[in-house]
Structure formats: C-alpha cells, structure tokens
Amino acid sequence: MVCISTPRRNLAVSNSLVERLQKDYPDFRFISGRRFSFRPPKTIVIGPDEGEKTPLLIFHELGHALSKRYRYDLAVERLKIEALAWQEAKKAYAACRVSARYPDLPPWDDDFAEDQLDTYRDWLHQKSKCPFCKTTMYQGSDKIWRCPYCNQFKSQGLFTYCPPTP
Fold first, then answer.
1. Is the pLDDT of residue 158 over 70?
2. Domain positions in the chain
C-alpha cells in the first residue's frame, strides 16, 4: 500500500497508479507535494488529487523526466519543453494502457493536454507584450526582450528606452 499525503487530502491507494509506476520506472522517485512538478533529474512530485485528470498530470511530470529536457534559456524554450513533456507523456500513457498492469487508466485526453499547454502560451503572450505600446516583443539570444515598435527593451525585469538607429 502506498500512502500519498497531499495538502488537500490523503490518498491511501492499494495497487495504485503511483505504485505501479514506481515499479515500471525504478530510476525515478515519486513523492507527494503541494503541486505537480518535476525536480530534475529524477524526482516526480505528485500534487493534490485532481480527480480523473490526476493520471494525466502524473504522466506529464513523468514526460519531463523521460524527455530529459528541463533547462531553458529563452521563454519560448519553456513552451517547447512543456510540449515535449506532453508528447512523452502521451507515448508512455499509450504504452501503459495496452499493458495488463494498467487496466484502469482512462483514455488519453488531448484536449486537457492542449488546455494545459494553453496556460504556457498565455504566459508567453503576457510576458512578451510591451507594457508601453502593447506590441509583441521578441527575446533575443542574449535573453533581452525588445519591442520593435517603441524601442523599449527589458533586461532583468527593467525597461529602458533605446532610441532607434538612423
């Protein structure tokens, strides 16, 4: 029996998904926490019970572990990493669904995965919006955000005006 203690409730689960995943993925450590997350290189944090979406969230964090991609320098790379984690999660989920060890897994929900990715798309859109003229800024390889319209740039959270070059 595995006991997952979360802030919202305690789940005592016999032959649980987590217990089976621990056996199938012994290289990774599954622990409980305040929210679903992945702590590189090998720790998968199980957040509070989210009902029928809990398996998808667990597999998403497993997807991060399996993809071995968890560092990013540019904001757009974070979206790529999240998309890759959902792709890896879907592959692992499909493999588990055909296994007799996981007969209780519900069907994969592409809409849920896309909704989760939308939160990162929204984050990126908000982060890239120039606070002065509302134009979409771009982030260069130097990690500095630049507005092509009003010549503002943001470095380490500070905005500065940069006059256009003649």
1. no
2. 2-127, 132-166
